[in-house]
Amino acid sequence: MGKTILTVDDSSTMRQMIGFTLKEAGFEVLEAGDGLEALERARGQKLSLVITDVNMPRMDGITLVQRLRAQPEFRFTPILVLTTESGLDMKQKGKEAGATGWIVKPFSPEKLLDVVNKVL
Amino acid sequence: MSPGRSSRPEPAHGSRMPSFMRGKASSYFDRHFQRSAMKILPGEFYATHRDEVIVTVLGSCVAACLMDPVAMVGGMNHFMLPLSRRDQDPDVFFAARYGAAAMEYLINELLRMGAQRDRLVAKAFGGGKVMEGLSDVGSQNILFVRTYLQQEGIPLWAEDLGGARPRKVYFFPHSGQVLVKRLEQAHNRTILEREVSYLEHVALNRDGSDVELFT
User: Fold this and answer.
1) How far is B44 from chain A (nearest CA, A)?
2) What is the ipTM of this complex?
């Protein structure tokens, strides 16, 4: 069984691009369009990694990180933030919420896979 | 009128863009339209809730004007897909990711100003075949912007895309109105030079994605 990665982004274009990169590298990919949907998708799943955007409707990525960290089964799951946000204050919020790393868009597939393999 | 207007952030431009998207929009008072005008260059964007006009000049680049008519916020970006070696797959993907990021910077800024994603509508301009001899980057840009908007479920209310002449575009975010002026080929040396130098700049910074691991 391959490792499963949940990607969370409100842009379907972006989900497709991230999904393509990960599937090519042999990962199973689950998708969600916002934080709330991500929590539903994550329920009962064995996730190796979560990759989330920040700015999303209904529930943003920082809140999603906090909510996942509050659940025992995701306390130690690596969570990468993949966003257009590059401000230090926003990064700090992500770090405090419990994110594992921060990647600023646009991403290069090689770099994304490199980071993914580092945190897995 | 939408609530919470006073708490809206100031209009925002290129400063949030990553390093390969450079420059800053410059503002002036437009006497003809009797309001403040913001001029954007390739690689820049500007979003506002004020009653002003956003101006740009397009050759083969495209500009997407996005607005939320209910929240009365709107903005424009100006970009081109860096398709220099089209036969190589990684380049195509880099191009698409770049375009998607250019759209997302603008969308996120509008959301920050009170727009709602499901209320966004778009108008798209540019993508001319103005560089003789060069591969038709304009049509790639058009294809990208149409596909992107469709995939994101953002209705394209109006467009003026393709053709051989550069355009000057005036976007009024409050009314959603856009005026397009076709420019003469003879005067567009500067437009071409700007686009080529922008393209080179993007190509040079293609692996610039910024990564930080918290430990």
Assistant:
1) 14
2) 0.88
